[in-house]
């Protein structure tokens, strides 16, 4: 899925944490967000996933504006490097988790989940 982030701004009260962020991610590309603690990486990811709302700007998936879509309708997930991992689960299972909890009609079969997770793990 291609992702276009256009002129994203985010403020918490009077504090601006993201200022005019734009980024185009072509379908199939892997991108890393790097920066010091407090630089807005997690806030941007939360906005892309729909868990946080931007103050202004747009998010598009395959050219469709999803800025106003609910998080569940965006079907985006992310795995943190250290936090929020399930300690009782393997790396594979942590990555697969988001796919395994989708509603049955939307959930890929076990073979498709295995293929997707394996492909992701081969990239890192």
TrEMBL record:
Q: Which Gene3D superfamilies does the record associate with it?
A: P-loop containing nucleotide triphosphate hydrolases (3.40.50.300)
Transmembrane regions listed in the UniProt entry: none
Q: Could you cite one Gene Ontology molecular function of this protein?
A: ATP hydrolysis activity
Occurrences of domain ABC transporter (ranges): 18-121
In terms of superkingdom, the source organism counts as Bacteria
Q: Which UniProt keywords apply?
A: ATP-binding, Nucleotide-binding, Transport
PANTHER family according to UniProt = SPERMIDINE/PUTRESCINE IMPORT ATP-BINDING PROTEIN POTA, SPERMIDINE_PUTRESCINE IMPORT ATP-BINDING PROTEIN POTA
Q: What is this protein called?
A: ATP-binding cassette domain-containing protein
Originating organism: Enterobacter hormaechei
* Source taxonomy: Bacteria, Pseudomonadati, Pseudomonadota, Gammaproteobacteria, Enterobacterales
